Amino acid sequence: MYTTDMTDSSPCLELDDASIGYGTGSQRLEVLQNVNLAVAPNEFVAVIGFSGAGKSTLVSLLAGLATPDSGRARMLGEKISRPSPRRGVMFQSYSLLPWLTVFGNIQLAAKQVFPKKSKSEICEHVEHYIEMVNLTPARDKQPHELSGGMRQRVSLARTLAMEPEVLLLDEPLSALDALTRAVLQDEILDIWEKQRKTVVLITNDVDEAILMADRIIPLTMGPGATLAEAFPVPLPRPRDRRTLIDQPDYQKLKAEITSYLVGLNRQVREIRISPTLQMPDVAPKQFRLPSKMPGMKRSRIA
Fold first, then answer.
1. What are the distances in angstroms from CA 82 to CA 21, 65, 87, 128, 263?
2. How far is Cα 205 from Cα 218, in angstroms, rounded to an integer?
3. Burial category of 87 from C-beta neighbours within 10 Å (exposed 0-12, middle 13-18, buried 19 and up)
4. I need a surface site. Which of 13, 31, 132, 159 has the fewest CB within 10 A?
5. Could you tell me where the beta strands, DSSP code E, fall in the chain?
């Protein structure tokens, strides 16, 4: 279970003994149990874990898309009970409207959040975020005309255009190739350096977590997963991926996190190994064919 000391400032995001599961009776599955998390304002936290551990469910709790069965989720001391533009979510899928252009997808979100802005103000607002993610030449293209990396840029720009106080990134780069992923990592970091929003990144990539985060918190294996003790990232910012891997602190931290995750996986596999069941000593019964079947001799088959 993870706790943190927030002596300098009150947490921006909190989970207090939050548990959630699905189903009833014998079909009940506990996804997360007694999760405690405190994220400071402007902090960049990475939650790392295996597929199926409950990382997306954790994001849903923080986003207000799901409510804990017990415990609480809070933002700046207030209970999180429903989605809010104060918390921008970026999922693995692009979730773009295919009939709208890059501009149109971002404009739709901006108009919902800022209904009092004039048409010209909305236009200027949208153009600003399109330029921020380097998509100005593609502003009038529809999603099917874009590469996967460009679509994810649109998704990022749409989230940022709502000007949320918190960014929740649910493995948004996992489906991209290595080069595109690296470019978008750098863009997200550059935006974070300039705007200093509170960020929670969900990832299964240790290198990505070390490059981007202030703290890395492993999520244990499910069912009934919880947050383990955090690994602080002592590396100074800005971080250069070209020299990062040569730093002793980086190598030590990566080895510690990887070793923890491998050990966690090994423990769970040992627990889940079921004993070999002895099958009963049985043999098939003998039977006789009918004696009057035409064209066949009476025989005995085992």
1. 18, 6, 10, 29, 37
2. 11
3. buried
4. 132
5. 13-22, 29-39, 44-48, 70-75, 78-79, 87-90, 166-170, 198-203, 215-218, 231-232, 287-288, 300-301
Q: What distance in Å separates the CA atoms of residue 39 and residue 62, rounded to the nearest whole number?
A: 11
CA 59 to chain centre: 7
Predicted pLDDT of residue 29: 87
Cβ pair 70, 94 in contact under 8 A: no
Stretch 85-108: mean pLDDT, rounded? 93
Cα dihedral across residues 107, 213, 262, 55: positive or negative? negative
State the average pLDDT over residues 77-90. 94
Confidence of residue 2 (pLDDT cuts 50, 70, 90): very low
Cβ count near 243 (within 10 Å): 9
Residues facing 199 on adjacent strands: 44, 167
Q: Work out the percent of the chain whose per-residue pLDDT is above 90.
A: 68
| Nearby residues of 171 by Cβ (< 8 Å), 6 or more positions away | 55, 56, 92, 202, 203, 204
Show Cβ contacts of residue 116 under 8 Å, excluding neighbours closer than 6 positions: none
* Number of C-beta neighbours around residue 150 at 10 A: 19
92: exposed, middle or buried (C-beta count within 10 Å: 0-12, 13-18, 19+)? middle
Tokens 């099958």 — which residue? 279
Identify the three-state secondary structure at position 8: coil
CB 198 within 8 A of CB 11: no
> Is the backbone of residue 171 left (phi > 0), alpha (psi -120 to 50) or beta?
left
Q: At which residue do the structure tokens 């990832």 appear? A: 203
